[in-house]
Automatic annotation (TrEMBL), chain A:
Fe cation binds at C76, C365. It comes from Methanobacterium formicicum (strain DSM 3637 / PP1). InterPro entries: ComplexI_49kDa-like, NADH_Q_OxRdtase_suD, Ni-dep_hyd_lsu, Ni-dep_hyd_lsu_Ni_BS, NiFe-Hase_large. Keywords: Iron, Magnesium, Metal-binding, Nickel, Oxidoreductase. This is NADH dehydrogenase (Quinone). Mg(2+) binds at E54, I329. Residues 127-296 form the NADH-quinone oxidoreductase subunit D domain. Its cofactor is Ni(2+); Fe cation. It comes from the Archaea. Pfam families: Complex1_49kDa (PF00346), NiFeSe_Hases (PF00374). One of its GO terms (molecular function) is NAD binding. The keyword Oxidoreductase applies.
TrEMBL record, chain B:
Its main location: membrane. The keyword Membrane applies. InterPro entries: ComplexI_Subunit1, NADH_UbQ_OxRdtase_su1/FPO. This is NADH dehydrogenase (Ubiquinone) subunit 1-like protein. One of its GO terms (cellular component) is plasma membrane. Pfam families: NADHdh (PF00146). The chain crosses the membrane at residues 6-27, 70-88, 94-111, 161-185, 197-218, 254-272, 278-297, 309-328. It is a multi-pass membrane protein. The keyword Transmembrane helix applies. It comes from Methanobacterium formicicum (strain DSM 3637 / PP1). It comes from the Archaea. Keywords: Membrane, Transmembrane, Transmembrane helix.
């Protein structure tokens, strides 16, 4: 018997949730080990929706492979294609025009906005607050319209290409005006929501002190992104990305590490995203949006990290005859799974889904590895 | 003549109650929830009429249950209990004596509550089935743990609801008893015809608030939806009901909404349900107001866990006890 088994808590019963549970919205299995409805241990398993994207990418021409990465996630599709292109650009030494970088950042921050609003809406739904959820989805529509206007689609925008952005994502005066108006509207709506949210005693009593992840645990469990920042760690990869150098923004942190902190974290990050978009629109440089003067060559394994709405996204691949080799992708939810399990422990079963959802999981995108076993 | 009159009153009241109750879930969803949530919402007939109709014509499945026939019969039994409850509220039925008393009504409501426990303990849904192999990717932290089904959980919660959750409703019912000094509905109504409705007294107002909270708890509406919370037990006791059995569930809920509102009108306004009495319109207004108020409150509430549920029930029960004390003074 291993040490792990000896140290295990005595478990009264297991309540398995999933792989498809109506509150989860994603296929994952949450096993809750409970004692009188209090969770004593939790276990999350992913792997039921593995699509083998890396395997499919293997051997594809790099631009096709980049496009494919966008299909990994329906929420942060732009983040994937941007990071994949960024990996290729680092490997091939492609200089991205400044205007293209600004457009990419506008897209990325719009995506952060819609992802955070979706998170808040989903969180409210799991909380049982259908009205908040519906209203947040309405607020999100403004962002979706803007993304649709720029990228041509509401989910798969296909904006980034090696060396810049696609011609259809060029921002003319009319589009810039619409983005500015959209930001004004969003700021007003999100402020109104935030006021209503924090002044609701019933909601606050449900989320305060629930699903706590301490700073020590967050670091121990290698959390990333807003999940980490909600525990008081001011780590935002955007500060280390040269693309974000021209922009002024604050790294939002919260101290308590509970569901309340996680939700407020995203609310305040929305304002920072709006701030960045406004700066990008105001200072958008003139010039080309694509650099086509580069040559394909074989490259060693190259990696790229960017800060996406859920945390740090990692892409790496090498190039051989213009084709992708040894591709590895790691999404932020992979890093946050430990925290999700940890956050459930000690709380009521009803709080378990909330504790998982507070880390903004995206399990379908996280399904990157499988283990074949004999049954 | 008297017998014909009584038969018309009883059957007519039940029929009207049945028809009105079919619209209540639709009113709740369409005019309150949907309006608050700034969406169109379903047609008013959808949740109460069209959905049960649809379910009656769906193929019936055999549920995973140790006693499938009993399990399937429970929604119908539940409906019959609620019909009986309304039946004994009708003045023409007061000749049955003890059955038309608060004690009997409490008994019927308790039986209705126990149904949720039976539903939970007799169901085994596919949602809780263990995977056919141990979770090797994670190392299977607790591989041999006995498994609990969602329905077990809801059954346990139903037991707790019977033990303490429905306290407020019963306490509020005894406000009328304390004020009138009788457990019989006839006496309670007669008292209010002489002294005016109990609702317009201090004890009555307190009792009405407590009754309303109890009404929401008994109907398992948000924020008190601990039996069927989406984040954990999904639909709890109702999870496995399909086809016509689900239709009974829908109809029972609408009928219970109407019956509890009628009970309120009887105990706090002194107006018993009788289609041949013009004051029946007040019963109908109460029956419409209660779901509407409940829908407003539930649209702005998150789901409670025990952490919020226990203090709420305790606090409301204390107000109920104070109302009884005020009624006795």
């Amino acid at each position: 018997m291993d040490d792990n088994k000896q140290n295990r808590t005595v478990i009264e019963a297991e309540i398995p949730m999933g792989t498809v549970h109506p509150a989860a919205l994603e296929p994952y299995r949450l096993r809750l080990f409970v004692e009188d409805e209090i969770v004593r241990d939790a276990e999350i398993t992913v792997g039921v929706n593995h699509r083998g994207v890396e395997r499919i990418m293997e051997g594809l021409p790099v631009e096709k492979a980049n496009s494919l990465t966008e299909k990994i996630c329906g929420i942060c599709s732009n983040s994937h294609i941007w990071n994949s292109c960024r990996t290729g650009e680092i490997a091939l030494g492609i200089e991205v025009p400044e205007r293209a970088t600004y457009i990419r950042i506008i897209m990325e921050e719009l995506e952060r906005l819609h992802s955070h609003l979706l998170y808040l809406a989903h969180g409210s739904e799991v909380l049982g607050h259908e009205t908040f959820s519906m209203r947040l989805f309405y607020i999100r529509e403004t962002v979706m319209d803007l993304l649709g206007m720029i990228g041509g689609n509401r989910v798969q925008y296909g904006s980034a290409v090696l060396g810049g952005v696609r011609p259809r994502c060029e921002l003319d005066e009319m589009r810039l005006q619409k983005i500015t108006e959209g930001m004004d509207l969003l700021e007003e709506k999100i402020t109104a929501f935030a006021d209503r949210f924090v002044s609701d005693p019933m909601v606050m009593s449900r989320i305060t002190g629930v699903g706590v992840i301490s700073q020590k645990d967050a670091l121990r469990l290698a959390c990333t992104g807003p999940t980490l920042r909600a525990t008081g760690v001011a780590r935002d990869l955007r500060r280390e990305m040269e693309e974000y150098d021209p922009f002024e923004f604050d790294v939002i942190t919260q101290d308590d590490g509970d569901v309340k902190s996680q939700l407020l974290m995203r609310v305040f990050e929305n304002f920072e995203a709006i701030k960045i978009i406004r700066q990008a629109v105001r200072d958008l440089p003139d010039g080309p949006i694509t650099n086509r003067s580069w040559e394909m060559q074989d490259t060693p394994l190259t990696k790229s990290y960017i800060e996406v709405p859920r945390g740090t996204l990692y892409h790496s691949y090498s190039l051989e005859d213009g084709r992708v080799r040894n591709c590895v992708i790691r999404t932020p939810s992979m890093a946050n799974i430990g925290a999700m399990q940890h956050a459930c422990i000690g709380h009521h079963i009803t709080d378990a889904q909330l504790s998982v959802v507070q880390c903004d999981p995206c399990f379908t995108c996280t399904d990157r590895a499988i283990e074949i076993i004999k049954i | 003549m008297d017998l014909t009159y009584s038969l018309i009153a009883v059957i007519g009241t039940l029929v009207v109650a049945f028809i009105v109750s079919l619209f209540l879930p639709g009113i709740e969803r369409k005019f309150i929830h949907a309006r608050i949530q700034q969406r169109v919402g379903p047609p008013i007939t959808s949740p109460g009429i069209m959905a049960p109709l649809k379910f009656f014509f769906k193929q019936t499945i055999t549920p995973e249950s140790p006693m499938p026939r009993l399990y399937n019969a429970l929604p119908l039994i539940s409906l019959i209990i609620v019909v009986i409850l309304l039946l004994f509220l009708i003045p023409q039925m007061y000749f049955v004596g003890a059955l038309a008393s608060i004690i009997a009504l409490v008994g019927f409501l308790k039986v209705e509550e126990i149904m949720y426990m039976f539903m939970g303990s007799l169901s085994r849904s596919v949602l809780s089935v263990r995977m056919p192999f141990p979770d090797k990717a994670k190392g299977a932290a607790h591989p041999e743990t006995p498994q609990s089904f969602f329905e077990d959980l809801s059954s346990l919660r139903a037991f707790r609801l019977i033990a303490f959750g429905s306290f407020p409703l019963y306490i509020a019912m005894f406000v009328a008893v304390a004020m009138t000094g009788s457990i019989y509905l006839q006496d309670i109504i007669n008292y209010q015809q002489v002294h005016g409705p109990i609702l317009f007294t201090v004890a009555g107002v307190m009792g009405a608030i407590v009754f309303f909270i109890g009404y929401m708890i008994l109907l398992n509406e948000y924020p008190f939806a601990i039996l069927k919370g989406k984040p954990d037990v999904v639909e709890g006791p109702y999870l496995e009901y399909a086809a016509k059995y689900r239709a009974y569930v829908y109809i029972t809920r609408g009928f219970l909404m109407f019956t509890l509102a009628t009970l309120f009108a009887t105990l706090f306004l002194g107006i018993a349900p009788n289609i041949l009495n013009p004051s029946f319109i007040i019963t109908l207004i109460v029956a419409l107001l209660f779901p509407m108020l409940m829908a407003v409150l539930s649209a702005f509430s998150p789901i409670f866990t025990y952490k919020q549920f226990y203090p709420t029930v305790a606090g409301v029960s204390i107000i109920g006890v104070l109302a009884i004390v005020a009624a006795l003074l």
